[in-house]
Fold:
Amino acid sequence: MTASGVVTEKPISRDLASTIRGRLQQFLAFGGLIVIFVFFSLASPDFLTFSNVTSMLFSTVVIGTLAIGTTFVIITAGIDLSIGTGMSLCAVMAGVFIVHWHIPLPIGVPLAILFGGVIGLINGFNVAILKIPPFIATLAMMLAAQGLALVISHSAPIYFDTVPAYAAISTGNLIPGVKFPNAVIVLAAVAIIAAIILNKTVLGRYTYSIGSNAEATALSGINVRKWQIIIYAFAGLFIGLASVLISARLGSAQPALGQGYELQAIAAVVIGGTSLFGGKGSILGTVIGALIISLLNNGLQIMSVPQEWQNVVLGAVILAAVYTDNIRRRKAAM
Amino acid sequence: MTMTPLLQVQGVTKSFPGVKALSNVHLDLRPGEVLALAGENGAGKSTLMKLLSGIYTADEGEFYLNGEKLEVASPKHAQELGIAIIHQDFNLIPDLTVAQNIFVGREPRWAHTFLNERALNVKAQELIERLQLPLDPKQNVGALTVAKQQMVEIAKALSYEAEVLIMDEPTAALNDAEVATLHELIRRFIRPNTGVIYISHRMNELKVISDRVTVIRDGQYVDTLDVQTTSMKEVIALMVGRSITSDATPVGVRDDREVLLSVSGLNTKDRLKDVSFDLRKGEILGFAGLMGAGRTEVARAIVGADGIESGTITLRGKQISIRNPAEAAKHRIGYLSEDRKRYGLLLEQDVGANIVLSAVSELYAAWGFLKSKSMRATAARYVKTLRIKTPSINQMTKNLSGGNQQKVVIAKWLVKDCDILIFDEPTRGIDVGAKEEIYVLLNELAAQGKSIIMISSELPEVLRMSHRVVVMTEGRVAGILTADEATQESVMHYATLRDDERPGDPAERDSFETEQASPTDVNSDQTAGKR
Structure:
């Protein structure tokens, strides 16, 4: 019985081919990224300047951090619409903790991040225990978080002027000699950690399992409800982190700073090849997706394309990305 | 005197990849009669229905309606030709009213555009009165009982002026009174120019309602008998009377094994009634019964996938309560669903991930991090020992054949080191060679001391594997047979018992005892002669 079950040479190459096919969306997205980058570099002399690239990376940091957390949720075949306004609420809470309550930064910042975790925890509870569809549960949270952010802040920004060190979290240069601001380094670190968690830990494994087939996962003896709550709460931490990064950059916590970010982050995840039907996705793809979106936003702005048209372009890119993914999938199915 | 049959099926053959579902089947429905169609699960009844309703096209053979050749293009076409089919699963829209459902797709309109609700209700009311049905055209279908929903289906079917009415298991979800009403309706439908084909497992019903019975088995025509002069025992014998391809019998049957799991008085809200049985160590306990008898529900209740209303489950003498499959897995009870693709596998994940899935947190993780190397080694080992044919453990599970997918599911529970394995239809959709391998594997597992519950709709499979057989009908245990007592006839007998003739009835009991005393009676010879 040596012939069966033994890994032979030829199938390995087939495996490699299927791996490449599976990653095709990422390659395509990466190729798209390069094309867009080259296009803007040629189209506008103002594009490839240090200050512009830095500012573009800043916007990538916020979209990217939110999108990385959301990638986990979307791989479970869920969705999180509350990340944008949740970020507003967390930023306001950071202001309350640090400015109003004078909690020192080493405690205040983690508290703000944990507050994001609490938002995710509530989402997870509503989805897993109350069985509210993720779209509805997080839509409700989106509205509630926006309202709370306005109520708590009395609809006015909270300025971090009294705590200059706060701004350094985003804009300072932690590593001497590296000119990129801390926020970019934070995003890089977060992406690596998230990729390790998604691929090398039980949490990551169950994220894929639940998204592939939640019923089969439950019947395999895994407490799917528990893990759903954990995954949503975990993703919520990224909301908190993003809120710190954005409010530190702005120097203030504005109660509506996160509006619109949810859709940009979800778009980044989708462009990066994560399936809204669950079971598939990667952090690398999401980071590429976030880069594409902020590149488009930034480049079009520099070319003086009106904001309205930027949105039209973004919409077209999302359709194109998902459509190519569908074609690939149909081919793979044949 | 020979009359033109109302509906004639001649030499019909239909194959699916790997399976011959029907082979040279013929059938005559005479005008003015109710013809019963009997056969086991998988005998080919549903395929025949789908051919008649135009869902499938026959590979070979012809159909005739009133002597004229019949080519059915689609279900709608069948209705227009006067063939009405009522499927086991209703095609009703719960949020629409009775009238809206009956005339769905044919709604009366104003100016070809706007719905004429009033004309719709009037039309429906006329139809309902003509058929003498206790229905209100304006009521929502979702709020009706199953019996009334079925009446809506019948009204819908007959609104096409059908000549031939085909009913697939019409009484599966009905109580006795409702069955009587249904039969009344069928009798009213029958006229000199109409006919009914009535598919049912329930022998006593066939006796009451039908004139003749046609038996098919394994996709082949067996015989057509006059109901009045035939005993239902004969019909059962014809239904099951195939010779088993292999002479294999259960191995390792012993009655001195200790009881491992004991289920007592199990009730669920919608299906199970007072289910009790014991599972012994190292035993293969077969669960037989017809479709919808409640076997899968027992499995799901034990592993906590569905809630139970009352009853106790005792494991190794200790009463346990299992609220979800995660707790069942902790007690080392694994459930292998009949629907592998939906409930058993992560099709889009690789073989390795599937094999270790249920044991990941327990055996293959430290501080939340996966032990990839040892996971892969385990997966590779099980691929080898279970002889799973896959290029590597990185292969996507959906690319494996049915038999190998089933082995992946088995491997998953072996990694978890379960003591009790519940196999639901372990060989469904698996080709013959792979089936044998699964049987060998089950016997090996039992020999190693694992306790196995094997739910199967294939009687030969139950008989060759089971140390004991639990026969279920209508959500309850109709009988528990030892390997010696279990024969095709005895199992079928218990499986077709209705609620009103349980073994407790003294008049009935005699006949059971006779049957068990001579499990292979005259009918077997008769069957052999006919083959």
Summary: The CA atoms of residues 297 and 310 of chain A lie 7 Å apart. Chain A has a mean pLDDT of 88. The radius of gyration of chain A is 21 Å.
